[in-house]
Amino acid sequence: MKTMNKIRTAAAGLAAVLAMSACGGPATGTQATDIPKTQNTRDISEGVQPDAAAEALLPESYKSKGELTVAMDLSSPPMTFLAEDNSTPIGVNPDLARLVAKKLGLKLKFENTAFDTIIPGIDGGRYDFTATTMSATEERLKVMDMINYLKGGSAVAVVKDNPLKLANDTLCGKNIAVTKGSTQQLKHLPNVSKWTCEEKGQPAINAVTLPSIQEALTQLDSKRVDGVFYDASALAWANEQQPNHFTILEPRMDTRTNTNVAMGLKKGSPLTPALQKAIQSVLDSSEYKESLEYWGLGESAITEATIR
Predict the structure, then answer these.
(1) pTM as predicted
(2) At what angle do helices 286-294 and 272-283 cross, to 10 degrees?
(3) Residue 129 pairs with which residues in a beta bridge?
Protein backbone atom coordinates (compact mmCIF):
# COMPACT_ATOMS: atom_id res chain seq x y z
CA MET A 1 0.00 0.00 0.00
CA LYS A 2 2.86 2.39 0.83
CA THR A 3 4.39 1.67 -2.57
CA MET A 4 1.12 2.43 -4.33
CA ASN A 5 0.77 5.68 -2.37
CA LYS A 6 4.28 6.73 -3.42
CA ILE A 7 3.45 5.99 -7.05
CA ARG A 8 0.24 7.97 -6.86
CA THR A 9 2.00 10.89 -5.18
CA ALA A 10 4.77 10.97 -7.78
CA ALA A 11 2.32 10.64 -10.64
CA ALA A 12 0.14 13.39 -9.24
CA GLY A 13 3.16 15.66 -8.88
CA LEU A 14 4.22 15.00 -12.45
CA ALA A 15 0.74 15.66 -13.80
CA ALA A 16 0.54 18.91 -11.84
CA VAL A 17 3.81 20.18 -13.27
CA LEU A 18 2.95 19.21 -16.81
CA ALA A 19 -0.56 20.63 -16.63
CA MET A 20 0.83 23.96 -15.39
CA SER A 21 -2.10 24.52 -13.08
CA ALA A 22 -2.59 28.03 -11.74
CA CYS A 23 -0.34 28.92 -8.82
CA GLY A 24 0.55 32.56 -9.29
CA GLY A 25 -0.30 35.87 -10.88
CA PRO A 26 0.65 36.93 -14.39
CA ALA A 27 3.98 38.45 -15.30
CA THR A 28 4.44 40.83 -18.18
CA GLY A 29 7.30 42.30 -20.15
CA THR A 30 10.07 40.90 -22.33
CA GLN A 31 11.69 37.51 -22.29
CA ALA A 32 13.62 38.42 -19.15
CA THR A 33 15.71 35.68 -17.59
CA ASP A 34 14.53 36.53 -14.08
CA ILE A 35 10.91 35.61 -14.88
CA PRO A 36 10.10 31.89 -14.83
CA LYS A 37 9.01 30.82 -18.30
CA THR A 38 5.75 29.43 -16.97
CA GLN A 39 4.87 32.90 -15.62
CA ASN A 40 6.14 35.05 -18.49
CA THR A 41 3.06 36.32 -20.31
CA ARG A 42 4.88 38.88 -22.45
CA ASP A 43 3.61 39.43 -26.00
CA ILE A 44 6.53 38.94 -28.38
CA SER A 45 4.61 40.72 -31.15
CA GLU A 46 4.43 44.02 -29.24
CA GLY A 47 5.82 46.75 -31.50
CA VAL A 48 5.95 44.52 -34.60
CA GLN A 49 4.56 46.29 -37.66
CA PRO A 50 2.27 44.74 -40.30
CA ASP A 51 3.83 43.44 -43.49
CA ALA A 52 2.37 45.45 -46.38
CA ALA A 53 2.77 42.61 -48.88
CA ALA A 54 0.94 40.16 -46.60
CA GLU A 55 -1.82 42.70 -45.88
CA ALA A 56 -2.32 43.24 -49.62
CA LEU A 57 -3.18 39.55 -50.05
CA LEU A 58 -5.71 39.53 -47.21
CA PRO A 59 -9.32 38.89 -48.32
CA GLU A 60 -11.67 41.78 -47.66
CA SER A 61 -13.80 39.68 -45.30
CA TYR A 62 -10.85 39.29 -42.92
CA LYS A 63 -9.96 42.96 -43.16
CA SER A 64 -13.53 43.86 -42.23
CA LYS A 65 -13.62 41.43 -39.33
CA GLY A 66 -10.21 42.53 -38.09
CA GLU A 67 -9.51 39.27 -36.30
CA LEU A 68 -8.17 35.74 -36.83
CA THR A 69 -9.20 32.72 -34.77
CA VAL A 70 -6.45 30.19 -34.14
CA ALA A 71 -7.11 26.72 -32.73
CA MET A 72 -4.54 25.18 -30.38
CA ASP A 73 -4.35 22.28 -27.96
CA LEU A 74 -2.89 24.21 -25.03
CA SER A 75 -1.45 21.19 -23.23
CA SER A 76 2.02 20.62 -24.71
CA PRO A 77 4.81 22.79 -23.28
CA PRO A 78 7.06 24.31 -24.47
CA MET A 79 5.19 24.47 -27.78
CA THR A 80 1.67 25.36 -26.72
CA PHE A 81 0.38 25.74 -23.16
CA LEU A 82 -1.16 28.03 -20.56
CA ALA A 83 0.87 30.25 -18.25
CA GLU A 84 0.48 29.89 -14.50
CA ASP A 85 -2.31 32.47 -14.61
CA ASN A 86 -4.27 29.63 -16.29
CA SER A 87 -5.55 31.96 -18.99
CA THR A 88 -2.68 33.26 -21.16
CA PRO A 89 -1.46 31.01 -24.02
CA ILE A 90 2.35 30.85 -24.06
CA GLY A 91 5.04 28.86 -25.84
CA VAL A 92 6.48 28.72 -29.34
CA ASN A 93 3.17 28.35 -31.16
CA PRO A 94 1.36 31.21 -29.39
CA ASP A 95 4.42 33.41 -30.02
CA LEU A 96 4.44 32.64 -33.72
CA ALA A 97 0.67 32.88 -34.11
CA ARG A 98 0.74 36.34 -32.51
CA LEU A 99 3.50 37.39 -34.91
CA VAL A 100 1.56 36.08 -37.92
CA ALA A 101 -1.56 37.99 -36.90
CA LYS A 102 0.49 41.16 -36.36
CA LYS A 103 2.08 40.80 -39.81
CA LEU A 104 -1.46 40.72 -41.22
CA GLY A 105 -2.55 43.72 -39.16
CA LEU A 106 -5.18 41.63 -37.35
CA LYS A 107 -6.10 40.82 -33.77
CA LEU A 108 -5.78 37.19 -32.65
CA LYS A 109 -8.33 35.08 -30.82
CA PHE A 110 -7.19 31.79 -29.25
CA GLU A 111 -9.44 28.74 -29.05
CA ASN A 112 -8.18 25.99 -26.74
CA THR A 113 -9.40 22.67 -28.13
CA ALA A 114 -8.41 19.00 -28.10
CA PHE A 115 -5.91 18.13 -30.82
CA ASP A 116 -8.15 15.61 -32.58
CA THR A 117 -11.02 18.12 -32.89
CA ILE A 118 -8.98 20.88 -34.55
CA ILE A 119 -9.22 19.64 -38.15
CA PRO A 120 -13.01 19.10 -38.02
CA GLY A 121 -13.30 22.58 -36.51
CA ILE A 122 -11.29 24.15 -39.33
CA ASP A 123 -13.21 22.19 -41.95
CA GLY A 124 -16.45 23.37 -40.36
CA GLY A 125 -15.38 27.02 -40.34
CA ARG A 126 -15.12 27.43 -36.56
CA TYR A 127 -11.41 28.34 -36.71
CA ASP A 128 -9.43 30.26 -39.34
CA PHE A 129 -6.17 28.33 -38.86
CA THR A 130 -4.15 26.22 -36.45
CA ALA A 131 -0.59 26.48 -35.18
CA THR A 132 -0.29 23.47 -32.90
CA THR A 133 2.81 21.47 -33.98
CA MET A 134 0.92 19.54 -36.64
CA SER A 135 2.75 17.80 -39.47
CA ALA A 136 1.43 17.64 -43.02
CA THR A 137 0.32 14.04 -43.50
CA GLU A 138 -1.40 12.83 -46.68
CA GLU A 139 -4.70 12.55 -44.81
CA ARG A 140 -4.52 16.10 -43.47
CA LEU A 141 -3.54 17.52 -46.84
CA LYS A 142 -6.81 16.21 -48.28
CA VAL A 143 -8.76 18.72 -46.20
CA MET A 144 -6.23 21.45 -45.34
CA ASP A 145 -3.68 23.77 -46.87
CA MET A 146 -0.55 23.45 -44.70
CA ILE A 147 2.40 25.86 -44.55
CA ASN A 148 5.75 24.89 -43.00
CA TYR A 149 7.01 27.04 -40.13
CA LEU A 150 9.24 24.82 -37.97
CA LYS A 151 11.28 21.63 -37.84
CA GLY A 152 9.84 19.02 -35.53
CA GLY A 153 10.88 15.53 -34.47
CA SER A 154 9.77 12.67 -32.24
CA ALA A 155 11.39 10.86 -29.34
CA VAL A 156 10.64 8.06 -26.90
CA ALA A 157 10.64 8.50 -23.12
CA VAL A 158 11.10 5.41 -20.95
CA VAL A 159 11.17 4.69 -17.22
CA LYS A 160 13.95 6.51 -15.35
CA ASP A 161 17.39 4.96 -15.97
CA ASN A 162 15.84 2.65 -18.58
CA PRO A 163 15.78 -0.59 -16.54
CA LEU A 164 14.44 -2.55 -19.54
CA LYS A 165 17.42 -1.32 -21.62
CA LEU A 166 15.10 -0.22 -24.40
CA ALA A 167 16.29 1.47 -27.61
CA ASN A 168 14.44 2.92 -30.58
CA ASP A 169 14.75 -0.40 -32.42
CA THR A 170 13.89 -2.70 -29.48
CA LEU A 171 10.32 -1.63 -28.74
CA CYS A 172 8.71 -4.71 -30.31
CA GLY A 173 5.93 -6.09 -28.13
CA LYS A 174 6.18 -3.18 -25.68
CA ASN A 175 3.31 -0.96 -24.56
CA ILE A 176 4.10 2.50 -25.94
CA ALA A 177 1.78 5.41 -25.19
CA VAL A 178 0.77 7.89 -27.91
CA THR A 179 -1.70 10.76 -27.70
CA LYS A 180 -5.02 10.65 -29.50
CA GLY A 181 -4.94 12.32 -32.92
CA SER A 182 -1.15 12.89 -32.89
CA THR A 183 1.11 12.10 -35.83
CA GLN A 184 2.83 9.56 -33.62
CA GLN A 185 -0.47 7.68 -33.22
CA LEU A 186 -1.72 8.05 -36.77
CA LYS A 187 1.47 7.54 -38.75
CA HIS A 188 4.84 7.26 -37.06
CA LEU A 189 4.28 4.43 -34.58
CA PRO A 190 2.52 2.14 -37.10
CA ASN A 191 5.34 2.74 -39.60
CA VAL A 192 8.13 2.21 -37.06
CA SER A 193 6.42 -0.95 -35.80
CA LYS A 194 6.18 -2.28 -39.34
CA TRP A 195 9.81 -1.84 -40.39
CA THR A 196 11.53 -2.47 -37.05
CA CYS A 197 9.34 -5.31 -35.81
CA GLU A 198 6.68 -6.86 -38.04
CA GLU A 199 8.80 -7.13 -41.19
CA LYS A 200 11.45 -8.92 -39.11
CA GLY A 201 9.03 -11.43 -37.60
CA GLN A 202 8.88 -9.65 -34.23
CA PRO A 203 5.67 -8.74 -32.37
CA ALA A 204 4.23 -5.33 -33.21
CA ILE A 205 4.63 -2.37 -30.91
CA ASN A 206 1.44 -2.10 -28.87
CA ALA A 207 0.13 1.46 -29.12
CA VAL A 208 -1.66 2.65 -25.99
CA THR A 209 -3.71 5.68 -27.04
CA LEU A 210 -4.24 8.27 -24.30
CA PRO A 211 -5.97 11.67 -24.32
CA SER A 212 -2.96 13.84 -23.40
CA ILE A 213 0.78 13.88 -22.84
CA GLN A 214 0.15 14.52 -19.15
CA GLU A 215 -1.78 11.26 -18.86
CA ALA A 216 0.84 9.39 -20.90
CA LEU A 217 3.74 10.52 -18.73
CA THR A 218 1.76 9.87 -15.56
CA GLN A 219 1.19 6.29 -16.71
CA LEU A 220 4.87 5.95 -17.56
CA ASP A 221 5.79 7.27 -14.12
CA SER A 222 3.64 4.56 -12.51
CA LYS A 223 5.01 1.93 -14.96
CA ARG A 224 1.67 1.15 -16.56
CA VAL A 225 3.27 1.69 -19.98
CA ASP A 226 6.84 0.96 -21.11
CA GLY A 227 7.37 4.19 -23.00
CA VAL A 228 5.87 7.37 -24.42
CA PHE A 229 6.29 8.33 -28.09
CA TYR A 230 5.77 12.06 -28.53
CA ASP A 231 7.22 15.35 -29.79
CA ALA A 232 10.87 15.56 -28.74
CA SER A 233 10.58 19.20 -27.66
CA ALA A 234 7.69 18.50 -25.30
CA LEU A 235 9.46 15.52 -23.74
CA ALA A 236 12.62 17.57 -23.19
CA TRP A 237 10.56 20.31 -21.51
CA ALA A 238 8.78 17.82 -19.25
CA ASN A 239 12.10 16.30 -18.24
CA GLU A 240 13.45 19.75 -17.41
CA GLN A 241 10.44 20.67 -15.31
CA GLN A 242 10.19 17.35 -13.45
CA PRO A 243 13.61 15.65 -13.48
CA ASN A 244 14.35 12.11 -12.31
CA HIS A 245 11.05 10.67 -13.53
CA PHE A 246 11.97 9.30 -16.95
CA THR A 247 14.77 8.97 -19.49
CA ILE A 248 14.57 10.17 -23.11
CA LEU A 249 16.10 7.78 -25.62
CA GLU A 250 18.72 9.19 -27.97
CA PRO A 251 18.94 9.88 -30.82
CA ARG A 252 15.47 11.06 -31.83
CA MET A 253 13.33 8.42 -33.50
CA ASP A 254 13.96 8.02 -37.22
CA THR A 255 10.47 8.06 -38.73
CA ARG A 256 11.71 8.25 -42.34
CA THR A 257 9.48 11.26 -42.94
CA ASN A 258 9.75 15.02 -43.36
CA THR A 259 9.79 16.36 -39.79
CA ASN A 260 8.61 19.89 -40.60
CA VAL A 261 5.46 21.07 -38.87
CA ALA A 262 2.94 23.35 -40.49
CA MET A 263 0.19 25.83 -39.80
CA GLY A 264 -3.04 24.63 -41.32
CA LEU A 265 -6.21 26.17 -42.72
CA LYS A 266 -9.14 24.93 -44.77
CA LYS A 267 -8.29 23.43 -48.15
CA GLY A 268 -8.43 26.11 -50.84
CA SER A 269 -9.02 28.91 -48.32
CA PRO A 270 -8.80 32.45 -49.75
CA LEU A 271 -6.69 33.22 -46.68
CA THR A 272 -3.87 30.83 -47.73
CA PRO A 273 -1.75 33.26 -49.85
CA ALA A 274 -1.85 35.97 -47.17
CA LEU A 275 -1.07 33.51 -44.38
CA GLN A 276 1.89 32.08 -46.30
CA LYS A 277 3.26 35.58 -46.89
CA ALA A 278 2.82 36.47 -43.23
CA ILE A 279 4.53 33.26 -42.07
CA GLN A 280 7.46 33.94 -44.41
CA SER A 281 7.72 37.44 -42.98
CA VAL A 282 7.85 35.92 -39.48
CA LEU A 283 10.55 33.42 -40.51
CA ASP A 284 12.63 36.34 -41.78
CA SER A 285 12.24 38.29 -38.53
CA SER A 286 14.46 38.52 -35.47
CA GLU A 287 11.46 37.69 -33.27
CA TYR A 288 11.23 34.21 -34.82
CA LYS A 289 14.76 33.32 -33.75
CA GLU A 290 14.26 35.05 -30.41
CA SER A 291 11.23 32.90 -29.61
CA LEU A 292 12.91 29.64 -30.61
CA GLU A 293 16.03 30.39 -28.58
CA TYR A 294 13.96 31.38 -25.54
CA TRP A 295 12.07 28.09 -25.57
CA GLY A 296 15.21 26.02 -26.22
CA LEU A 297 14.42 25.21 -29.86
CA GLY A 298 16.97 27.23 -31.79
CA GLU A 299 17.87 24.21 -33.92
CA SER A 300 14.26 23.98 -35.14
CA ALA A 301 14.34 27.14 -37.28
CA ILE A 302 13.58 26.93 -41.00
CA THR A 303 13.89 29.57 -43.72
CA GLU A 304 11.05 28.93 -46.16
CA ALA A 305 7.29 28.97 -45.52
CA THR A 306 6.53 26.32 -48.11
CA ILE A 307 2.94 25.29 -48.85
CA ARG A 308 2.79 21.52 -48.61
Answers:
(1) 0.73
(2) 70
(3) 70
